[in-house]
Amino acid sequence: MERRVAERLRSTLGPLGLEAHAFKVGWYNAVLQPAFHLPYPDDTLAFVVLSTPSMFDKALKPFVNKERLKIIRDPVDQCVSHHLSRVKEKFPDQRVDVMFDYEMLPSRKPKFLAQTAAHVAGAAYYYQRKDVKLDPWGKKKIFGVCIHPKYGGWFAIRGLLLFPDIQVPFLEQPAPVDCVSTEEKRIELLEQFNFHWQDGRYRDIIEVKERYSEEQKAYFATPPAERFRLLGLSQ
Questions:
Q1: What is the tens place of the pLDDT at every residue in 151-177?
Q2: Where are the alpha helices (DSSP H) in 61-173?
Q3: Which of 22, 192, 193, 221 is the most exposed place for a label (fewest CB within 10 A)?
């Protein structure tokens, strides 16, 4: 069942520059405190959805051109929301719950921890402080970051698709590719991400197959309130 769902998602989302990676809710809940658990049985089938560099041209620009008059909030969020909501139409006999990376619970906690989901699904490796043996940061707060084996840091985690009626007790967990494998590189990655994230160097910590276009870099480097203008939209 999981394979059929995965193939349908690939054929639907792949042409849009989106990837879907399967996981069991139990894998995610097992590594988090109860306050962050997803409220589904452990064997529930879920997918984490990533946007790749090609999403900008394949999904965002066509969406903006078509829906120009209806865009009233962040265009990328609205584009992803549109396409993931339409996924439900591909599964008329299944319940499909969608969670987006920008959604919050009433407690102001995020609905899901995106980087943890990507890691347990084997989509991208979530490098954290605990992955460094000789920690050089003392009392500084150090945030972790996911690196994709193909795109490095040139991607984003956009949402979850959950299939509450599909249980997959025998789904095997894939390990994420540990592509930043040396201590030195991991320190460099976390240093760049935490203290120099604006220059984007952390994204190229490994040799990547594809990165954002210059147009896309300019878009994401622009303050959100001014991005409407870049896409020819009035705010």
A1: 999 999 999 999 999 999 999 999 999
A2: 61-67, 75-87, 114-120
A3: 221
